[in-house]
Write a structure and sequence with these properties.
About 45% of the residues lie in helices and about 15% in strands. By secondary structure, it is α/β, with parallel strands linked by helices. It folds into two domains: about 1-20 and about 325-470, no CATH class; about 45-325, Purple Acid Phosphatase, chain A, domain 2, CATH 3.60.21.10.
């Protein structure tokens, strides 16, 4: 059975990557020095505090570029691209009524990276600037040198010159990163991670700027597109392109230089994760996409010395063209999920197909493994799409650990995977004793490989693999307390 065990090990790893490939209680938040706090409300805006709105992944498509044949609700596109300009217009209208002190956007301002769409974003955001509301943006992976008519870094900086770059008192010569102080006492490191990484020289420059600010008694907070903390155990392996390259090393350096909060986006998930050690911590406050379920953004109230951040979550619920935005977004993503399985199957198929000989050595039919990539796509999508849908939607919504259905999914996915494989064995008349042994291996490897990751995601707990440092955070409404060291 050694060969069978190796096969099942490969098979379950493959299934895990497919399951997570498209995508992650009552909270206890910790300060930077790891001291517990209560989730009390912050009511300091009237007493010198500030109101901040955070948006992410707005993915605007200029109206003249919208192809409704490719973006309507009958396709597999999960974002509301055809309504992107209208959605941003409405959120900006809400901001004009709320009159925050600052609006931050953590990248992916456009879908295609074209000048027309960037100009559409600038035109809408300019309404905030006209009313004296400060705006700071950073590029995401969709914004620079992306698409068929790419925008250059120089064009980006010029287009958004009044939206962060005008406030910058220091700019990185090698990237679009900059440092600004929108309010006296709060310094923002606005970091260009459009390529998924930060060059060593740029990181050194940013950390030096952080040190200078801290020496003057400033609070320093970072803003970037890619996640800097794993939002569930296994995040960096299963969703590599969504988390910063060398995230662990960069995160530790940031903590060492007094940075304990980073605001991110990219994954389209509302999640707050924390990397903790016994002496320190780094909080990654991720905001979902306005265009993808559940269509969220953040309201933040900050006290006058920028140590207490009261975070709440708001949603786009309707626009003139759509009576129920979240319902439509939900439907779009449900339509999209099977394509995630099939797309990942294309990548994983060669490995699976290459181990077909293991079945022969175990005196079993090679056809237990689907014989073509087309068959494999359909088989796996048919078997796992329902559980994937549930997993994705709960992860996107946030606070999975408060949802009893999410916790139950950990074992339900195991049963589904074992059941799929058992049925396949039965269809090809595998001997009963070998069927029992192989399905036992599937279950055992699920417990070894899948379960820790599923538990981390669906109980909304990161660092579960390090019990002393594990962190559970309310993803939607909470208070973050930062130190000043």
């Amino acid at each position: 059975m050694r060969m069978n065990k190796e096969l099942i090990h490969k098979f379950t790893r493959m299934a895990l990557v497919v399951l997570m490939g498209g995508m992650t209680t009552t909270s206890c938040i910790f300060t930077a020095d790891n001291a517990a706090i209560n989730g009390e409300a912050t009511d300091d805006v009237a007493n010198g505090g500030k109101a901040i709105i955070v948006l992410s992944d707005i993915h605007v498509v200029a109206p003249e570029l919208v192809n409704t044949e490719n973006t309507d609700d009958g396709t597999n596109e999960p974002k509301l691209l055809q309504y992107s300009a209208e959605i941003l217009e409405q959120v900006v209208g809400n901001a004009l009524k709320a009159k925050p002190d600052l609006v931050l956007i953590t990248g992916d301002l456009t879908e295609g990276g074209d000048l027309a769409s960037h100009k559409q974003v600038v035109s809408t955001l300019s309404k905030l600037r006209t009313e004296g509301i400060k705006v700071a943006v950073i590029p995401g992976n969709h914004d620079i040198n992306h698409g068929t008519t790419p925008t250059t870094p120089q064009q980006f900086a010029e287009l958004y010159k009044d939206m962060g770059y005008d406030m910058a008192y220091a700019k990185d010569e090698a990237s679009l990163s900059y440092v600004c102080e929108p309010f006296d006492g709060l310094v923002l490191l606005c970091i260009d991670t459009a390529t998924g990484s930060i060059a060593d020289a740029s990181l050194a420059w940013l950390l030096d700027e952080a040190d200078k600010a801290r020496e003057k008694g400033k609070q320093v907070v970072a803003l970037q597109h890619h996640n800097l903390v794993e939002h569930y155990d296994g995040h960096s392996t299963l969703q590599t392109r969504y988390i910063l390259n060398n995230y662990e090393e960069v995160g530790k350096k940031m903590m060492k230089h007094g940075i304990h909060l980073v605001m991110t986006g990219h994954t389209h998930v509302n999640d707050i994760a924390q990397y903790k050690t016994e002496a320190d911590s780094l909080i990654d406050l991720e905001t979902g996409s306005l265009l993808a379920y559940p269509n969220a953004w953040r309201n933040i109230k900050v006290n006058s010395n920028f140590t207490k951040w009261d975070v709440s979550t708001e949603y786009v619920k309707q626009i003139p063209s759509v009576a129920d935005v979240q319902k439509l977004s939900y439907q779009l993503y449900m339509n999209h999920l099977p394509s995630i399985v099939k797309n990942n199957a294309d990548v994983l198929w060669p490995t699976l197909d290459g181990h077909r000989s293991m079945l022969t050595e175990a005196e079993l039919s090679e056809n237990i493994i689907p014989t073509t990539i087309e068959e494999f796509r359909e088989w796996f999508a048919a078997g796992m799409s329902e559980k994937m849908c549930q997993t994705f939607m709960m992860h996107f919504e946030g606070n999975e650990g408060k949802n009893p259905k999410a916790v139950a999914l950990v074992d339900e996915v195991r049963e589904q995977l074992v059941g799929m494989f058992s049925k396949r064995l039965a269809e090809y008349n595998a001997p009963e004793e070998k069927t029992a042994a192989l399905t036992l291996f599937v279950g055992a490897y699920y417990d070894e490989i899948f379960k820790p990751i599923m538990e981390s995601m669906l109980t909304d707990t990161n660092q579960l693999k390090e019990p002393k440092n594990k962190s559970v955070t309310d993803d939607l409404n909470t208070v973050l307390r930062l130190g000043r060291k």
